[in-house]
Each structure stands twice: as structure tokens, then as C-alpha cells.
Specification:
2 domains; Rossmann fold; 17 strands; alpha/beta; Quinone Oxidoreductase, Chain A, domain 1
Amino acid sequence: MKAAVIKNPGNIVVEEFISPIPGEGEVLLKVDACAICGTDQRVLKGEKPVDVPIVGHEISGTVAGLGKGVSGFKEGERYAVQTVIGCGDCPMCAISRENLCENGFKAIGYQWNGGFAEYMIMPKVGVDQGCLIPVSDKMTDEEATILEPLSCCINGMRIIPLEDAQSVIVFGGGIIGVLNGLVAKARGAKSVTIIDVSQDRLELLASLNLPFDHYVNSATTSPEEWVKENTNGRGVDVVVVAASVKSLVKQGMDLLARDGHLSIFAGMPKSDPTDVLDLNLIHYPELHIHGANSSVKRDYIEAEQMISSGLIDASALVTHVFSLDEFNEAVNIQSNPKSGALKVIIRP
């Protein structure tokens, strides 16, 4: 088969690779589409280590073969791939919260070869966990790749009462910021505002006719002044930090109304993740601070329902589609903020 193989950091070659054969309990998938995400970019550059030469974890595929002992699947069926695989033994895995596995979860595209190839294997532990998520016949292969990042946003915002939110701000106009905003809208938030430092990015989002109410360029407009003016000084109900900039956490807290919610969706650089906060800013206004770390099956199922029902238009997010032979061009497009790319898909 053909695959995009990491030779060394920054050197990825599309070449012939040994075709996988499903072992006992495994499922062979023909990869229909696999999206490039920001984490993939870090891996390809050598900034984040992985254990395999083929990455890619936002995957949709068709069953192409079954290992011995596998039941409940048929060749030709279409699935999205749940990335996270837990140990199966700890208390969090026992309640299907593998994303919080106490022994450290493993993942497709990190510990098992991923989707930037013509074929891939879902290992037995993933099959047993239920990591193949059925997708509607109405959903395109490209749309099905959105399930992974959308499921992460659904998980991150699960306990936030968005149905009652009058105003939501999302810091970060990349695909993750957009998906958080779409989840907020889908769950009933009245007003959603995207804040970003790039005017090019904001204009791209505006051109896609997404259901957001405001776009604010924080390079030219003070978020504090904007929020004060647009909420009569009250503050917003929800802030999502979807950019890995630690100063946005404190800034986001300052924008919240009393009883507001802050989602720290983006991870911060491990080399410098700490900051100083006035904890009374949490205590007295009774603020709620939430973390977000990947997703589990229930989140994928909700993501599939949101897209297949039309509650979220995933097709609007796909700006570029490339063949596997064009992999390096696709990587360059996805990493260029002036390219007009939002979601870049590889079709092997």
C-alpha cells in the first residue's frame, strides 16, 4: 500500500509500505479520508514524539477485512475512528472515560499507525472498546473526519450550561475554536463571538457563512472594551480558550460575568505552562473553570448525530482536499495562516 511515512522530523515521504493484515480480533480499514490537525503538524516537525511512522487520527474508513474471531462487523461498512484507547482496567476506563485513563491512554496515530495511508488496522483493544463509530450513509467521508475534533469539543463543553448562555466568546479562530463555537450554537447559546489576532482568519470564517454573531480582531480591538460595550458591563457567560496562549486564561476570567464558565480547551506549552492568578477572581464571582482532554465514545456518537441531523454543517468547514501523493503540499497549506485553509483532508 501507499503511505506518508515519517523518515525523520520534517522529512515525510509518500512511498510503498507493507500492507497490514488483520490479526485475531482486529479490523482492517480502507482509509477513505483523514484530516490534518495541528497536533499532526507538531509530530511531523518532531516537536511531539510518537511511536509509529504513520500518523493521522481524524479518520473515516470502510471495513476491508476482519481478523479471526471478530463479529459484529461486515466488509463495506463505514466507520469513523475513535482515537483514544484506555487500559481497560482503571476506575476511569470502567466508566468509559478512557480519555482520563489513570494508566495513560494510547491512541491511533501515536502508538498504532494512523490514517495517512491506504489501509490501517484497528487493534483488538480498540475493537473491544468500541472505537469504530458507525456513520450515517448521508455523511460524506470528509464530514466523517470531523467527528474526532468535534467530539473533543463536545466533551470539553459537556458540563457547561450552554442552553442558558446569552453570550459565548471563543479565543482562537482555528478549526477547534470554530467547532467549540458550533457546539455552543447547536446547544442553544444565543450569541457566539470568535476572537482572533488574524484578520485573514476572521475574514475566512466570515466568508464560510458560519452561524456566529461577531468576529473580533484582538490585535486592533480590546476584548475587554468590546465585552464591556456589548454586555452593558456585565461580562459574558462562557469563555473558551482554544489557543495555546496562557495569558488568555487570565484574560478570559476577566471577561466573565458572575457565575460564568471558562473552558481551558487548548493545552499550554509544556516548557512554560504556569501563570499567576488572583484566586479571589474565581472565589468571589463563583466562576467555574473546566479542563478538556480528548473524548470518548459518547462524544463521538453525539458528534455523529449533530452532523447527520444537520445541526452542524461539517461540509462548510472543509476547505481543501488532497490525494495522498500531495501529502506534503497539503501539510504546507494547512500550516500557512494565509492559505485560506480551515480543514484540510487527505483522501488516500
